[in-house]
Design brief:
heterodimer; A: alpha/beta; Helicase, Ruva Protein, domain 3; Dna Topoisomerase Vi A Subunit, Chain: A, domain 2; 2 domains; five-stranded mixed sheet; two-stranded antiparallel ribbon; elongated; B: alpha+beta; OB fold (Dihydrolipoamide Acetyltransferase, E2P); de novo design (two linked rop proteins); five-stranded mixed β-barrel; binds zinc ion
Chain lengths: 199, 245
Amino acid sequence: MYEGIIQDLIDELGRLPGIGPKSAQRIAFHIVQSERVDVNRLVEVLRLVKEKVKFCSQCFNVAEEEECKICRDPRRDPAVICVVEESKDVVAIERTREFRGKYHVLGGAISPIDGIGPDQLKIRELLTRLSDDRITEIIIATDPNLEGEATATYLARTLKPLGIKISRLASGLPVGGDLEYADEVTLGRAFEGRRALDL
Amino acid sequence: MALYRDQAVVIRTQKLGEADRIVTLISREHGRIRAVAKGVRRTKSKFGARLEPASYVDLQLYTGKTFDVVTQVESLENFGDAISHDYQKWTIASAILEAAERFTSNEGEPALQQFLLLTGGLKALAHESHDPSLILDAYLLRSLSIAGYAPSMTICSRCEAPGPHKYFSLVGGGSVCVNCKPSASATPSVETLQLMSDLLTGNWDDADISELKHRREASGLVAAYLQWHLEKGLRSLPMVERASS
Ligand SMILES: [Zn+2]
Ligand SMILES: [Zn+2]
């Protein structure tokens, strides 16, 4: 334990996802040793991000306006929606250049042990979106791990009565990993080989 | 840096840093363990999907300062496929895993009975040996029992008068007779108490043919009883999908 403000900083950093106690300490001391102008720039970006960045009213991807760039792009196919867990998955899929439809960002995966059920995700909002009858296909691209699979299972069951074509990214994706770590080639192939889900 | 080997069930995983995970396990010999699996989120990780929740594995670890570190994993049984492709089972497995974590309160303290109950519960769920919702209630009752909180289902928990009795009390420790009953006692049906007793003792022949209304009542009592004994309720329990037919 350190004293006062430095410990407060370590505690705050330690609350960030993926930052363990050791990393929090390392980052805190890095900040202490940094030039004031560098730290001020960080503070300013943090402030701006909270002020300017919101979630797209359509797909819940990060956006700086009411709707994100993808939703506003008239060249994107409105008939196909790819459902992902987080905004970083949108970035990973965009890198493949395989997908020309739109997205829906759930905000995570169903994980009851963490208190996250369907109501904590943007699933109701997805159902509302689907009343648009231009939409003919849903591609479920949740992470290829257990929570992602269970979320796909739930979505398939919930969406089935709507009579929309539902598919899941092909199982060429390595299981247990995060979608964002899949290389473009593998992820692109997974799109081509997506399989229909019938439950 | 001491190496050790054990069998364990993965309870939960949390992301750590760029590509690692902290894995919470309940093991046969070392009780609850928290360990780091390095690089497990990379798509070419040697661990693959073997360290996902509900995996039953044989693994090797070394003792670290903050966390132990996983060095090798072999899958003993994969419950994940059966569980993640059936949403009801997923919610039930989550509740089982969360309960197992809560009932092993201290890291490193051997908890062989909870470990055996856990592997047995997941196996029954994956193979659907019985109705999934009944498997959960049997699991919770037996966990309570191992922890020393088994509710009395027939004799009065206070004066030991032979039952069955009409009243059931959380405070009173289960069945209570008319003379001993605290003011806030439930009055479940005799069949419900019988079902709970069957689930606790493993009398599946009778439990399997119980009626839905008694199963529902039993689930409610088990949940309330569990909540009473654990300081905080299980987060996953309200999300469990109960039987519909
Ligand atoms: Zn959008
Ligand atoms: Zn009595």
